[in-house]
């Protein structure tokens, strides 16, 4: 005996009461729920409302015939997935083919053979139930793989961010090491030059004095001597040589200052927390950035206006704070250059680009450093994302978008300070 699954519903659409009776008794005794309709229209309505698991459909009916009913069932998304089995007379080969073409899964022939009807019904219900399970599993699989893809994408972004952050830190620390290394190497030779300038000046003076003395003691010189004196323009040389030595001394002194600034900037030797004069750190940063704000053929000068207040020494990691100054002043220069590139020479002359650096004591505990520029300013949308890692408006390869996020880490996390951006137009500061 073939038996149906509990609760499986079969809709039978047939206009012949005898057929209906036979099918009803066979199917219900096998445990199926049976719904019956006697024409195509009502069959469609019933299928739409009850969503049966299988439809047995007669071909010849009053009103719309079985083929049309089947077409409409398949055209409606609510019923298209319900398997349809046609019921035809044994001899109607053409009907069987038409029925299968209209979307039926099978056909049974009249007069009905009980066992055949039940076997076909059962097999198609099984196929349908397997199809549903398969579809559910497919959906689960799809969800799972979408979830997996999202996870992989998230993980990849995290890794990329960590990688870029490492590169930026590495870049900053290797810049520091390079600066410290160069400064260290230049330090000794420049000290030779500087140190030797004073005796060189003395020796030159001595030699010139000696020549003068010779001239006084032996005023009647011969023609060879006189020719040499003329050739080298002794009088000019005697006046100019001490000046040459002096300017060499000034140059060497300047290099010593630069070297001291570079060492101060990198502060590699001073990784510790210590008390420093912040003005020194700012000045050193400005010196390093000097080439970026002086006038060149391509760019107008950017004026630096320092308004240093009286501030106490501050306990900090000086090398790190220098990086913060470097990032903020560097950003100001970038913004001004970008702004200037769209301004006429006349505008540049009347309203030159400026960076203001103001320092003051807030109270006995805190000092403030304000760095402003008269560039285009920062829009509200940009201001909200300013300290986000990787937020940049600069072209690929120009900015990593890490400058301010690292500055935020240094000021807020490392020094328990505050870093804020105020994008109202720059104040003239009375200057
Ligand atoms: N002074 C400023 N004027 C106008 N926009 C600014 C200024 N300072 C920062 N910004 C904006 O903030 C963004 C983020 O700055 P941040 O220093 O974090 O990254 P970046 O300068 O783009 O790249 P990086 O510093 O890593 O080279 C900049 O791309 C720019 O749009
Ligand atoms: Mg930057």
Q: What can you see in these coordinates?
A:
The chain is of the alpha/beta class. Among the domains are: 9-112, Rossmann fold, CATH 3.40.50.2300; 270-431, Heat Shock Protein 90 (2-Layer Sandwich), CATH 3.30.565.10. It is 58% helix and 13% strand. The strands form three sheets. The protein has a five-stranded parallel sheet, with helices on both faces. Adenosine-5'-triphosphate (ATP) binds at residues 327, 331-332, 335, 373, 375, 378, 382, 386, 391-394, 399-405.
Outline:
By secondary structure, the protein is of the alpha/beta class. It has helices at residues 17-29, 40-50, 66-75, 93-101, 114-217, 223-231, 234-266, 278-293, 318-340, 345-350, 380-385, 403-414, and strands spanning 9-13, 33-37, 54-58, 84-89, 106-110, 274-276, 302-308, 314-316, 353-361, 367-373.
Write the layout of secondary structure elements.
Elements: E1 9-13, H1 17-29, E2 33-37, H2 40-50, E3 54-58, H3 66-75, E4 84-89, H4 93-101, E5 106-110, H5 114-217, H6 223-231, H7 234-266, E6 274-276, H8 278-293, E7 302-308, E8 314-316, H9 318-340, H10 345-350, E9 353-361, E10 367-373, H11 380-385, H12 403-414
Parallel strand pairs: 1-2, 1-3, 3-4, 4-5, 7-9
Antiparallel strand pairs: 6-8, 9-10
The structure holds adenosine-5'-triphosphate and magnesium ion.
